[in-house]
Amino acid sequence: MANPIPTLASLEMQPYLVDGALPSELDGKVGIYAIFDQAQALQYVGFSRNVNVGLVQHLVRCPEQCHWFKVYTVERPSRTLLDEIRNAWLAEYGAIPSGNSDTQVAWEKPIDAKTFMTEAERHEIDNADPTEINKLLKQVARRVEVDVKAKVEARGAQMPIKFNPKLKEQGILALK
Questions:
Q1: Sign of dihedral through CA atoms 105, 39, 33, 94?
Q2: In this structure, are 128 and 104 located in the same domain?
Q3: What is the pLDDT of residue 3?
Q4: Do 123 and 94 fall within a single domain?
Q5: What is the pTM of this model?
Q6: Which of 31, 48, 137, 144 lies in disulfide reach of 171, CB 3.0 to 4.6 Å?
């Protein structure tokens, strides 16, 4: 018989960062997690084939909302099981957190630096020679990267954060 789905309330609330890092025992583990803000209000429920990598991605994408988490790891992962657990946790919570609704893109997709362009940057790209656009997008991505890293460091993270350099030319910040 399959193990019963753990309730969200039954899981231990853990700090997102301890001594500037995520818990190393989650590296390589498949599981589902709930992320909470500083006031321990649920922000997002997701799952990953590598919980540690997933939590780092969320910290980079939404650093102000990542203060606590609860996690349940599984030995034999199945998308169906993880979906069932997520649905049970959301039902238990009684509401859909913004990370699973209106801000889902911010939680789940790489950072699109183009959404943070200044009017001057937008004007420069709109009027640029087509051969210069990738270079200009890379400059925007690098500027946004500095801001992102500063926010993550302000949260106390001390892990290296590296973005895919090829995607910067498209204005995308995706963790490497």
A1: negative
A2: no
A3: 62
A4: no
A5: 0.92
A6: 137
